[in-house]
């Protein structure tokens, strides 16, 4: 897909940054046709205030310091917050040490910001949700017309006919706040098909496997003076020496993430879930969808956060989601290497 195919997109991004969220944010910043209207911070991989600091630092590193960053809820709707330092590191960015941001978190609450933006620009904004759905559920409570006001919604979350990555049946984002996910899907019941959320679930996102060779290619594309080597044989905590700061920060994040996946028997690689969802949101990777009615379990103790999709209408209920299928991993990874590598090579003021 060349640059002539890339249509302007205006995004509201809600994330819990997170290594793969960070990679998605860097990728979105690399796309000149993408307007990032706001980045809102939900607790998940780390606490909400740390998420906001990560977002501020990344946006400044990527030359987008004017994008407002806001915090919404600091806890899930009904259950205690669980974070995942073992997966993403204590600050959410692996081994990376991001610069202290110069800017400040917006005085506006994330929910207020989303509702005001959607009302001001009806039919223009795409919502990209790569975190637990807490803030979006609260925004829907504040403005039930959001499904009509937003142009598109893309959700990274859930798993269907596929093992979970948090419990045997539950994906992380949905497990952290199952009640929020249930409210979001209920709000979309009966909406026109073109308004239903595009859902990037584990069976799709886990096929987007970033490996050390992709990181090396990204660094080479950025013009780094020495090869970027990340390998399973390196000691934990090994830091990048890349000559390019953005490459160095992303590499330090990914080394932690590679090691986590290896520790859990998946190989020295990273499932970059949120990057793929970002590609879906801005139309830079091929995929197809299956319309479904999604149920989120909130009661059964061993099944909390489990998502079930009725693709055949057996429940007799209106669809509330379009589940993404048939990704093209090689294309998506080539897009990442070329886009972020070229972006890292460009000077920023």
Order of helices and strands: EHEHEHHEHHEHHEHEHHEHEEEH
The chain-level structural class is alpha/beta
Q: How many extended strands?
A: 11
> What gyration radius follows from the Cα positions, in whole Å?
19 Å
- Largest sheet report: 9 strands, mixed
Straight-line N-to-C gap: 29 Å
Overall helicity: 25-40%
Helical stretch count? 13
Low-confidence stretches: none
Strand order of the largest sheet: 3-2-1-4-5-6-11-9-10
Taken from the alpha-carbon principal axes, the silhouette is globular
**Beta-strand content:** 15-25%
What does this structure look like?
Strand 1, helix 1 and strand 2 form a beta-alpha-beta unit. This protein is α/β, with parallel strands linked by helices and 349 residues long. The protein is globular, with a radius of gyration of 19 Å. The mean pLDDT is 96. It has a 9-stranded mixed β-sheet with strand order 3-2-1-4-5-6-11-9-10, with helices on both faces. A two-stranded antiparallel sheet has the order 7-8.
Question: Descriptors for this entry?
Answer:
349 residues; alpha/beta; two-stranded antiparallel ribbon; 37% helix
List the helices and strands and how they pair.
Layout: E1 9-15, H1 19-29, E2 34-41, H2 48-61, E3 69-71, H3 85-88, H4 110-120, E4 125-129, H5 134-142, H6 146-149, E5 152-156, H7 172-176, H8 178-187, E6 198-200, H9 202-205, E7 209-210, H10 212-221, H11 245-263, E8 270-271, H12 273-282, E9 288-296, E10 307-310, E11 321-325, H13 329-345
Parallel strand pairs: 1-2, 1-4, 2-3, 4-5, 5-6, 6-11
Antiparallel strand pairs: 7-8, 9-10, 9-11
Helix pairs in contact: 1-2, 1-12, 4-5, 5-8, 10-11, 10-13
